[in-house]
Amino acid sequence: MDKGQHSQIETTTLQPVPMEERKSWIDVALIQAGLMICVPSLLLGGILAEGMELGEAILAGTIGYTIVIVLFCLMGIIGSDLGVPTCVTATSGFGRKGARYLVSSITFVSMIGWFAVQTKVCGSAFSNLLLESFHISFSDTLSTVVWGAVMLVTAVYGINALDKLNSVAVPALFVTTIVGCFMALHQFGTAGLFKPNPHITMSFAQGVILTVNYMAAGCLAASDVTRYQRTRKDTILSSVIGVMPASILMVVLGAVMTKVAEQYDITLVFCEIGIPVIGMLVLIAATWTTNTMNAYSGGIDAVLMLNLPDNRRAAATMVSGALGTLCAVLGMADHFVDFLNILGDLMMPMIGVIIADYWLTGKGNPERFQEQREWNGIGVFSWLAGYAIIKLVPYGIPYAQGIAAAIVLYTLLRREKDLQEKKKKIGQNYFCR
């Protein structure tokens, strides 16, 4: 037994996960569900409900998350096939340096940002709950630092700690939030559900786009967890059953609470109906299950980005979480919607390149996967082209067009390159004769 195993701290980072260390689809599904259950997911439902009619808001969220699940499966299967995280799966499409300086760096920054958003929400809400319900004054800054440190501990230990945390927290959160929703409906009534929205500010397509952009980082980083799945079937089951029920629950709760209680956050609704302790516990558990994954993925990307040894993931995770907490204290969470759009614009074409490389040019065969040591110019160009289309084409569905452009460009250019190399090889063999 090595030191990493003895301390229970995960040490497998960029190397393939051995089959004997992989987990059941139920374990991974609970981790995926824990990623979805959080206050920002409720905020998404609230934003949708404020911008359109309630039924449209829920439908837009459902369709958006259906697209997310397709991307989760396509990206996640690559991870389970190869047993490696996303930053390594990108080494073929982008090259080792492209994966290190582009994919890992952008994902690392995004995970720090998500950790900041979640920690700020938790810290501020915890302080408010103490003040309003127990008349205890507690600094927002100190609360943010304390909860950032607490949530970071689980991430440092790795996948087994995530497994144990979510196996307890996720079922409890499902039951508690659903019961809380019914209690809120009983307290506030259902009249608000049927009132027409006088301020329609968002189209149905925009609602779908916002939902998908919200999960851009999660889609790109899917392999960070699914590398622990044994089969493709397990990956599909964990992605569908882990993501869909939890995501729809959060959209519905956020939208319904916004309509009936004028407050999307179910944890604060618990306070308004007289059970603040439950609200506090839900807040902590929901943030913990999500933020642990943010710091965990950030640590994985930091290992490749900084060219660290595999067994330094725990230290890299600590640094990621510390930076995220600092960003939270500095107020990064104040620009939530803009942050979502930036993430989606940058990450969606990256997903397109990785999908095209593995599923189209590689035929979905793990034996054809080959890491390129330097830059893969075709992947970088295709990513930039997809990003340009998202930013410059004002019609249609930008993220879908960006992904499609990256996929098509990469596939065509790779095939042309492979054809030219094949012709060159044939010519060399001819002259050698």
Oligomeric state as shown? single chain
N- to C-terminal separation?
55 Å
Described by strand count, sense and barrel closure, the largest sheet is:
none
Unreliable stretches, pLDDT < 50, 5 or more residues?
A: 1-6
Gross morphology = globular
- Rg over alpha carbons: 22 Å
Overall average residue pLDDT? 90
Number of strands: 0
Number of helices: 18
Helix content: over 70%
Q: Spell out the helices and strands N to C.
A: HHHHHHHHHHHHHHHHHH
Q: What proportion of the residues form beta strands (DSSP E)?
A: under 5%
Q: Which structural class best describes the helix and strand composition?
A: mainly alpha
Could you outline the blueprint of secondary structure elements for this entry?
Elements: H1 3-7, H2 25-36, H3 39-51, H4 54-82, H5 86-93, H6 95-134, H7 140-157, H8 159-188, H9 204-214, H10 216-220, H11 223-226, H12 232-260, H13 266-272, H14 276-305, H15 313-329, H16 336-361, H17 377-392, H18 398-432
Helix pairs in contact: 2-8, 2-12, 2-14, 3-4, 3-9, 3-12, 4-9, 4-12, 4-16, 5-6, 5-16, 6-7, 6-14, 6-15, 6-16, 7-14, 7-15, 8-12, 8-14, 9-16, 13-14, 14-15, 16-17, 16-18, 17-18
Description of the molecule:
This protein has helices at 3-7, 25-36, 39-51, 54-82, 86-93, 95-134, 140-157, 159-188, 204-214, 216-220, 223-226, 232-260, 266-272, 276-305, 313-329, 336-361, 377-392, 398-432. It is an all-alpha fold and 433 residues long. It starts with a helix and ends with a helix. Residues 1-6 have low confidence and may be disordered.
